């Protein structure tokens, strides 16, 4: 199973290949995607992306995880999340969301088992 391409990105909207849904924030992995509902883990811009936010994607067997911090990079990524990913042997890339989507799509096109969590606003 390959990682689906992120087909489009604009402020507050993302579309993922193979899904008819328009996401505001989303998680993607080889073979799927879904809404990233921050309320599930109590995530806020600060302290930011929690290990619980990325655990689902990690469990899909990704080699690399790309985190999109938002268009203005308002979403933080604390050391605890990076440490969790490192302990799982995951290569992590933390970028502004437009750059993160380009990086994710490039890795997916190369056949890398890549996943991502992306914030499409601030």
Characterization of the model:
The chain is an alpha/beta fold and 122 residues long. It has a single domain, classed as MTH938-like (Hypothetical Protein Mth938, Chain: A). The protein has three helices and eight strands; from the N terminus they run E-E-E-E-E-H-E-H-E-H-E. The protein is globular. One of its GO terms (cellular component) is cytoplasm. Pfam families: DUF498.
Enumerate the spans where pLDDT stays under 50 for 5 or more consecutive residues. Answer: none
Quickly give the CATH architecture. 3-Layer(aba) Sandwich
Element pattern in H and E: EEEEEHEHEHE
Which strands sit side by side, in order, in the main sheet?
Answer: 5-4-8-6-7
In CATH, the topology is named Hypothetical Protein Mth938, Chain: A
Q: How many extended strands? A: 8
Terminal Cα span:
32 Å
| DSSP strand content | 25-35%
Q: With helices defined by DSSP (H or I, 4 residues minimum), what is the helix count?
A: 3
Search tags:
30% strand; Hypothetical Protein Mth938, Chain: A; three-stranded antiparallel sheet; 8 strands; 122 residues; five-stranded mixed sheet; NDUFAF3/AAMDC
